Amino acid sequence: MTSVEPSEHSLQLPLPWQESIWQRFDQYLEQGRLPHGLMLCGPRGIGVERLAKALAQRLMCGAEMSKYACGTCKACQLMMAGNHPDISFLEPQEEGKGILIDEVRDLISRLSKTAQQGGWKVVLISPAEAMNDNASNALLKSLEEPQDKTLLILVAHRPSLVSATIRSRCQIEHLPVPDQHTAEQWLQEVTEEREAVAQSLHLAGGKPLLALEYMQGGSIETRKHFEQLVDDVRLGDLSPMSAAQQCQKLNSDEMLDWFMHYLHRLVSGELQNKPNPALFSFADRLRDARGWVLSSSNINPQLLWEGLFMDWSKVFRQSR
Q1: Fewer beta carbons below 10 Å: N end or C end of the chain?
Q2: What fold does the segment set 218-319 form as a domain?
Q3: pLDDT tens, 216-264?
């Protein structure tokens, strides 16, 4: 299998399903209408951050009349070396952690200085929902009083969790999940495989980059194992405590996403003609759990999953 995972500082291109929005960015640039704050919204696994990086790199590129970063000019060479002084990336220092006010203040300090290369200054914040309230408030001034040729790009996988004040000061672009044919064709081209593509894409909820991650990283087996636990609890073949024990060392945010997709498939498939109001209440329970996981680093995974699996088993005990 061919790996297409880009290195940290490699130049990016928009993906096939992003061409229409890329053309819109092209028009904004030609007409001088690029906003000072741009929020790109979409689920993980469809390339939202990749598109954001492609745009940031294009603005830095010194080549004229080029639709993409050229890769050969001085600015592109600096970017590929990770040394361009006018482009900044802000993300959590550890997965699942937040973006803090001191990090945002340091960013604002860099933005206040003149562009060293005489062109654009670009900041990419991903994911924007990782900023806590203090960090979001610290960013507001840069959005409210933008400098010339300065662009803040915010990537939001869950835009509802981003401060409403931040959202109101950005131009928001929603990126949809690509259609199945486009996603399958791209996956087949980059992996040179056919058999595993459909299954991986199905498990990934149609998200091509997530499906690619499953295929290259082997996490598809972890997901299958998790869904088997969910099935076993549903059927009464495994206790909630035992299932929770097997989940406590895995990524809770990721598993909650898997659980939501599993529930959607169950309601729209096997249980389509067997309405059970408790399923919708449980969906709310999953959304609440995700909010807790995102807002706190002190969640006890064992207790979280014990509670979820106990409620999950009750849904079907009541319907039997």
Answers
A1: C
A2: Zinc Finger, Delta Prime; domain 3 (1.20.272)
A3: 876 778 888 999 999 999 999 999 999 999 998 888 888 998 899 889 8
Instruction: Assess if CATH 3.30.70.20 describes domain 16-174.
Output: no
Q: What is the pTM of this model?
A: 0.78
| DSSP states of the chain | ----PPPTT------GGGHHHHHHHHHHHHHT---SEEEEE--TTS-HHHHHHHHHHHHH---TT-SS--SSSHHHHHHHTT--TTEEEE--SSTTPPBPHHHHHHHHHHHTSPPTTSS-EEEEESSGGGB-HHHHHHHHHHHHSPPTTEEEEEEESSGGGS-HHHHHTSEEEEPPPPPHHHHHHHHHHHH--SHHHHHHHHHTTT-HHHHHHHHHHSHHHHHHHHHHHHHHHHHTSS-HHHHHHHHTTS-HHHHHHHHHHHHHHHHHTTTTTS--HHHHHHHHHHHHHHHHHHH-S---HHHHHHHHHHHHHHHHHHH-
